[in-house]
Amino acid sequence: MLRDRENLLEEKYEKLRGLVSFFGENIDRYKSKDYDEANTRVDFIDKFFELLDWDVRNEQQFSEDYREVVREDSVIIEGKPKAPDYSFKIGGVRKFFVEAKRPSIDIKEDIGPAFQVRRYSYTAKLPLSILTDFEEFAIYDTRIKPHKNDKASVARIFYCTFREYEEKFNFIYNAFSKYAILKGSFSRYVDENKNKKGTSEIDREFLSTIENWRSRLAKNIALRNPAIEAADLNYAVQKIIDRFLFLRIAEDRHIEEYGNLKKSATERDVYSGLKTVFTAAEEKYDSGLFRYESSLNEIKIDDRVLSKMIDELYYPECAYEFSVLPVEILGNIYEQFLGKTIRLTASHIAKVEEKPEIRKSGGVYYTPDFIVRYIVKETVGRKIQGQKPDQISKLRVLDPACGSGSFLVCVYSCLLKYHLDYYLQEKQKNSSLRARKIFQVSENTYRLTIEEKQRILLNNIYGVDIDHQATEVTRLSLLLKLMEDEYVEGQGELFRHSQLKMLPDLSSNIKCGNSIIGTDIYDGQSNLSGEEEKKLNPFNWETEFESIFKTGGFDCIIGNPPYVRQESLGTHFKKYVKDHYSTHAGTADLYVYFIEKSLNLLSTDGLYSIIVANKWLRSNYGQALRKYLKKRKIHEIIDFGDLPVFQGATTYPLIIKVSNGEPDDFFAVKQNPALLENVSGISLQETVETTRYRVLHRSLEDGGWSLSTVRGSLLLEKLKSKGVPLGTYVNDRIFYGIKTGLNEAFVIDEDTKNELIKKDSNSAAIIKPFLTGKDIKRYKTPEASKWLIFTRRGINIHDYPAIENYLQKFKERLKPRPGNWKGEKKWSGRKPGTYKWYEIQDSIDYHKEFEKEKIIFPDISMRGNFSLDRDKNYLVNTSYIIPVNDRYLLGILNAKIITWYYSCISAVFRGGYLRWIYQYIEKLPIKNITSDAEIEIKSNIEYSVEQMMVSQRNFDNARTEQERIQAQRKIEYIDNRIDELVFRLYDLSPEEIRIVTGEREVARFVQTGRSGL
Question: Which of 66, 140, 159, 254 is deepest in the core (most CB within 10 A)?
């Protein structure tokens, strides 16, 4: 194989030398103005990229969507080409552009070609692209926003001439060949060149642009139209921006005359001119986007505001090339845009601010494209596989919280590709051509007709969102996707029939309403105010989609439901969901109700798949949802654990696919970093296939779900049967530490402690050594780094004048609320105390638990991190105490078997950390000793734990490096011995030990390719 590869590379070098030599011998002719770009491409550039293994001429005869190299037919507008010359793709996904020029162009110094390729690639969100005339070859980092005055060298990260090709070919091949893309070398090269000065993703830049438009428009309209209300203002601003973007994109795709929108900016009354443009667009498109509305038509807007907006949509002010702007990127931008709203102040000034529900949920997080594509493929893709168009026409796909429409756009793309491929396979019969399903654009290139694209959109795609602006954006996104391949070539087909309008009206498909609140909320709700009704926006599924429910419901339901707590949604909402949802829990997020509602809307054989927070798997509020889902057929759960799926968010998500079928075992994948390696050649689909494992349905417990392999599930059951829950073992004596209410006041350093005691020796009585989580290490004797002023009920603060004096400066921040002690609940065993001005809200005896020898542990740790405290330390509330001096229990809790068990029943956080909290801790199985053999093992564990604590002290007190090394070796030996003793105690087989020591590193599934059991 190595010899074959060497021979292949030598053949490439030989061909390359031939190309270079031929060009060099005739360079004067090639650099003349008579030798054009088309000949340069055919004679040299095509052949160069064929040496990089690209199928430039589509000899494999792939369909248009999947051909490796798309060569654009440039259309000249204002003397400039309006499409990139080459688009290089893998699996239909763009990887980079190549802009070709004739050799007479100066690639190194001419700013025009550099700006052109950077503008195309920046808009298409491609990280790198190439500019070449074969004589010269330049690579640009196209994440850096281009500017019309940039020198050609700006953002250029590589340059060479044809005479250096042989020397540089190895680098070029390893970065831009098809092989380099498939093995990930291209992605690594991209990563090596990221974070350069000036790098700025188009999402952020374009979002900033349209947010500026919104702010300027809103302020001007509010000023010029003093009677306008906030809702109408939001609507008007959104509509104008949507119309501008649609028309500008249509111009760059040559469906509208280039510059048509800009002509309005030169008129004296700009908005009047725009209204004429909008009226013409409504005649042409008839989609509702440009429909006449008196409230919108009669508003007043200053010319300067509109003119500036329009200027920023055109070269040279605009850095974007709208013909290559993916709809998916626009959806990402709009998703962020929709997180804010326009509010009017008392003086009628427009303010743009984050929506309250978005602020409370921590922001807007756009679902990554590879997640969307996976969910669509696993639902819609499976439903249409092997189906004919007339069968697919009955498919109904819904996103009940559609937002900007990213899932529905992906569904539409999937359906369009499937239909085109189907018709191309059938085209030899010519039936599809006669039926006006596809038409030919150029040699071997066909497209779906506008009628067929409209038919698919209207038949198959449905969405609902409570936010009217979101539904408007979803409609816009779908219409832009419909237009995506509509260029000047298709206009003859498009307007052949005068009755045909380009864009359909989507008002019957995409609707505004509250997916989880029905109109039956009006029953007995006479006190529901107009404002509350508007906020709730009730929705009746059966009447809004009557024909769909007559035929059994939706066939696929997908999406990313909102992660919003219900507390802020009002008493009427809370009462409704409590009365109507079996999954109700007082602290549940909205997605819980979306899951139940969606499965009720799903047809008998339908598929439901979403990405959603994984907290419900184990949280208390998820118990009702777990019971509900156990009665359905779960097909798959992909738990991403602590992996950063949503950029900038700390939400830990999973994908679940479920249907209304009979319950059965299902497949799961969890915590695999490769799941996010969405690079060329590695798809989420392929990774899931190699890492999935079967989960026993009967292993799902109402108290919390563990996504373990069959063997893992059986081992969990075995361990559970071998011991008693820790809570039972210690008589429910597990407490978490002190919550002061204001650490700044009550947590002090040693100098402050000494000063207070010096001023008044009585102060020592209520100043306690205080441990934080980082002070607690496995088996180590803890040393307090802080001190706690421990006031509580029954203590008269006046008896401690130094401390009273010290706390006076915090008095205003500690001021008690009236009736602070009214209705106080008795200490239940694990609720924290809370300081209120000189008092702690706790039972009289609670503090005595800290005065005992006790097992202590922090709430966040990668593994069991338990220690023994003999020094009467108090702990912060992010740590726990078990007030027993039990070396046997300490050894069990620190053993690998308990860490493995805990990782299965709890959630893993970013960086592989576990959150050690009461609701899971209390369930840990602790082996009760019942035989003489077990008594001996227990005795050995206790002895080993004592030896471990001594060794830890020796390590901490070591005076030389050699002493530390020796102590560390002994620690490792004893640790392994404790694990072996615990394995014997719980009667684990060699295979079960391998599960405990290896299954938590789920990446092993990738290495072994193991699946199933």
Answer: 140
